[in-house]
Structures are given as C-alpha cells and as structure tokens.
Amino acid sequence: MTDATRTIRFTLNGRAVTARIAVYETLVEVLQREFALLGARESCAQGLCGCCTVLVDGTAVSGCLYLAAFADGAELVTVEGLPKDGVLHPVQQAFVDKGAFQCGFCTPGMVLMTKELLEQHPHPTEDQIRHYLSGNLCRCASYPEIVQAVKLAADKVHI
Amino acid sequence: MKNFELVEPATIDEAVALLDPDDAGVRAIAGGTALMLMMKARLFEPVRLVSLRRVNGALRGVRENAGGGLTVGAMTTLTELERSPKIAAALPVMSRALHTLSNVRIRNVATLGGHLAHGDPHMDLPPILLTLGARVRAVSRRGERWIDIADLFVGYYQVAVARDELITEIDVPAQPAGVHTWYAKFAALSADDWPSVGVAVWYRTDGERIAEARVAVSAATEMPLRLAGAERALVGNAPTPQTFAAAADVAAEAIEPVADIRGTAAYKREMVRVHTRRALAQALHTGRAAR
Ligand SMILES: Cc1cc2nc3c(=O)[nH]c(=O)nc-3n(C[C@H](O)[C@H](O)[C@H](O)COP(=O)(O)OP(=O)(O)OC[C@H]3O[C@@H](n4cnc5c(N)ncnc54)[C@H](O)[C@@H]3O)c2cc1C
Ligand code: FES
Ligand code: FES
What is the pLDDT of residues B255-277, one digit of tens each? Predict the structure, then answer.
C-alpha cells in the first residue's frame, strides 16, 4: 500500500522538528516514541479523561484520538514546554502550591486545560472551572485542591 | 491500527474524486473523534481516509444566508459553534446544548459535518436541528443536492449521505418570531456524558394557543426522530402544564426505546416522558429564539 509512512514537520514546544510516522499513529504515540515526551499519556484511550492533552495551535486536543499526521504544520505544546528557563509556569506552580495531585498522572492534562481555561476566562467562577475541567478525570480525586489551584493560578496569571 | 492511505486534498472537487461509491473502506475524515474510536476498537478498518482539514477554508465558518437564516460549513468545529455570537443570537437552544456536549477537547476537534454524517443515535444536535428545520448540502461527482434533515437519519448509524457524497454545509432557516425552543439533555452518568435521552422541543404560540409544534427525541430510539403524535397533542391547545403532560405521555408511548448502558428500555420511556414535559415547560419561559 502507498503512503505507509510519512515525514511530518511541526513546532514542538517552540522547536522546529520532523518525525517519521505511520499514518495510523496517534499524537501521543509519536510524542512518546520520537521525542520521549511522556507528559501526554494515554489512560482511557477514548477522549474522556484528558491525560493525553496536547495543545495544537493553541487549543487542547485529546492526543489519543488525534492522528499524528494532522500535526503536520502545526504548533504543539506539551506540559514539558511550559517551564521557562527552569522556572515552572504559574499554573504548574499553583498546582504545587496547593498540592493539587497525589499520583500526578492526570496533572499534565489538568495543567494544560487550565491554561486554555484561563485564556478563555481569565477570572473563572467555580462553576466555570468545574465545567471546563469536567472532561479531565483524576483517579486520586484531588478535585478540591485542583479547583483551589486553578483559582490561585487565575490570581497570578495574566495572559 | 492497521495501515491505510491518508489523503489530504485541497479542494472539494478533489475530495469527492477520492471517495468511492463501491468501497466501504473509503471514508471522509473530519475531526476524526468518532472515526478514531471506531478504528481503535477495530469496528472500522479503513482502506483510505480522505481528510477534509486542508479544504477547511471553503468548509468553515458560520454565515448569514440569503433567507436570513444561518449556514454552517461542515468543517466548523463544535467549539466554534459554541462560541459563535451568530448562533447564540439566532439559535440559543444550540449554544446551550453545545456547552454540555462532550468535553472541551472533543468540541475543539469535532465538526458539525462529522456529527451529522456519523449517524450515531446518541447525539445532542440532531434532535435540535430536526426541530429547527435544518437541511444539509451533499456534494458528489454526480452533482449536489439538499437533504432535508428529516430525511437524513434513516436507521441505526445510518444516514442518507451516500458513500461518494460529502456534506459541505448545513442550513438553518430563520426562525419565526415568538418561537419557544428548548433541549433537555438527560445524562445518566456524568454531566457531560452522552445523553441517555435527549428531547428537543419547538413551538410557536399564536395568542393563547400553540399554533405549530415540533418535538424530536434522540438517544432513546434507534435514530433521532420527530414525534408527530406529541406534536398534534400540542397544536390548538393552550401552553399549560396539562397540555405539556398530555403531549409527554403521547411521546413516551409512541417510541420504541432502545436499551443501552445508559438505561433500560422501560427507564428510557419514563425519561422521555419526564424530559418532554420539562422541555415544553422550560421552552415557554426561557426558550425564545425570535429573530
Ligand atoms: C469522548 C467523547 C464524548 C462524546 N460525547 C458526546 C456527547 O455528549 N454528545 C454528542 O452529541 N456527541 C458526543 N460525542 C460524539 C461527537 O459529537 C462526535 O464524535 C463528533 O461530532 C464527530 O465529528 P468529527 O468531525 O470528529 O467526525 P469524524 O470522526 O471525522 O467522522 C465521523 C463520520 O462522519 C463522516 N464524515 C465526517 N465529515 C463528513 C462530511 N463533511 N461529509 C460526509 N461524511 C463526513 C466520516 O466519514 C465518519 O463516518 C462524543 C465523542 C467522544 C469521542
Ligand atoms: S487517554 Fe485520551 S482522553 Fe483519556
Ligand atoms: S493525581 Fe492521581 S490521577 Fe489525579
């Protein structure tokens, strides 16, 4: 069959990169295999939990349901791209300050969704926070602390 | 997943030329949220996927059409619809429903064309578009045609769009003044889950009476459909709790509910009764879509 593999070019956390991929591969698979980025990780594998969140051209997508081929030409940001010069992004710092995790498996997705939430709603109400993050599941049920962290981040971040 | 051919044409003409009326393994891919689930579960093993993402420009956005209604490009994402001021002003019932349709990440990627072409009976927008009287433009090498939304859903995961056709846009006509609309989404699991039952209602009052009514149900039935009996039970009557309860009873008795993990058939019938009644009552107070 034609087209078994292809080379895609995109920007990953600010760096221009290329990757050799199979057309059926998902974004999470390629980020893990080609770039050893493990922040976006597959858990539910069906769009429900948010553990695989990646920002593609500024919007959050489920990397488990996104063809890697569609990243060609796009700008991607994963949680690894958030710190600047070794300093955590304010959203990340807010999660640390509030202890908004136990195992941390859901945290990269929560952090990236929070970043998008604060771009949409710089001063979110509790309702908006809960609604926006309703597609991000935390198996450890750190939800109260996560909501606290988002509020703290909203006070600190000015995007 | 198995290997397949992925093509990314730049125009609608090129895209339809790549479809194949004789091969079920050849399909369009828009956001891919529904297809990827099917491919991961091996329910669908594509031979060729025709991606519409590079045809985006021609297929994207919400605009006013000549009839004063709205035309939505098939590749418009559900997030774009959710945030569209035009949709919010003309069709608030849709904006509201989009807010609890799946989660942000899915809405960021899923498209209206994919939502309708998928034919999944458990979806939120089909019953609403049934009550709004939408139509869908389908294009193929053979030409183009408009499909009335009432003719689009033909069975369980079956739509009237042929294998070699693409949906390019969706037209929603201008709604008459004084129309009341509401969509009741009943989710049995979590708030943004797929609906266990969805009921969309639309009615126009003339003085003290209901002059025209549309009621559509989804998720409880094999496919989204209008309920003519419930509509007849409304027309000519005053919009009172008694009228609404009577129409809801007709709705509940008219359907052949399909059980799934979100409810048994008997439970879904009761939920259709409850949510038809509630939707009709809610529409009276808040569901104005007058333009
Ligand atoms: C986790 C999750 C939760 C969800 N929850 C809900 C919910 O609560 N409510 C709800 O209503 N829906 C829900 N959905 C379904 C969602 O709405 C659909 O997956 C989505 O709308 C499909 O759009 P898409 O662009 O991704 O379609 P795709 O996956 O790209 O395509 C779907 C089908 O449509 C065909 N197709 C796509 N575009 C066209 C076109 N222009 N012309 C002809 N054929 C076309 C494809 O060939 C395919 O058969 C959920 C989905 C997921 C993954
Ligand atoms: S792994 Fe992708 S949303 Fe759960
Ligand atoms: S901290 Fe363990 S899943 Fe959220």
Answer: 999 999 999 999 999 999 999 99
CB of A40 within 6 A of ligand 2: the answer is no
Q: Are residues B143 and B63 in the same domain?
A: yes
Residues B156 and B76 in one domain: yes
Ligand closest to CA B99: 1
Q: Which chain A residues touch B4 with a CB distance below 8 Å?
A: 1, 23-24
| A–B CB contacts, 8 A cutoff, strictly below | 81
Total-model pTM = 0.96
CA distance B252 to chain A (A): 31
Q: Comparing A29 with B285, which gets the higher pLDDT?
A: A29
Provide, rounded to the nearest whole percent, the portion of chain B with pLDDT above 90: 92
pLDDT (0 to 100) of residue A156: 87
Q: Are residues B114 and B167 in the same domain?
A: yes
Q: What is the pLDDT of residue B290?
A: 42
Q: List pLDDT tens digits, range B143-162.
A: 999 999 999 999 999 999 99
Domain final position from B129, B151, B172: B172
Query: Which of A24, A25, A62 is closest, CB to CB, to B105?
Result: A62
Query: Given pLDDT bands bounded at 50, 70 and 90, which one contains residue B177?
Result: confident
A95 lines ligand 3 (CB under 6 A): no
> How far off is chain A from B63, nearest CA to CA, in Å?
23
- Among the partner residues B5, B32, B104, nearest to A67 by beta-carbon distance: B32
Given CB atoms, is A121 within the 8 Å cutoff of chain B?
A: no
**Is the CATH number of domain A5-81 3.10.20.30?**
yes
The whole domain housing B44 covers 5-51
- CATH number of the domain where residue B31 is located: 3.30.43
Superfamily name and number for A90-157: [2Fe-2S]-binding domain (1.10.150.120)
Residue A24 distance to chain B (closest CA, Å): 6
Q: Three-class SS string for chain B?
A: CCCCEEECCCCHHHHHHHCCCCCCCEEEECCCHHHHHHHHCCCCCCCEEEECHHHHHHHCCEEECCCCCEEEECCCEHHHHHHCHHHHHHCHHHHHHHHCCCCHHHHHHCEHHHHHHCCCCCCCHHHHHHHHCCEEEEEECCEEEEEEHHHHEEECCEECCCCCCEEEEEEECCCCCCEEEEEEEECCCCCCCCCCEEEEEEEEEECCEEEEEEEEEECCCCCCEECHHHHHHHCCCCCCHHHHHHHHHHHHHHCCCCCECCECHHHHHHHHHHHHHHHHHHHHHHCECCC
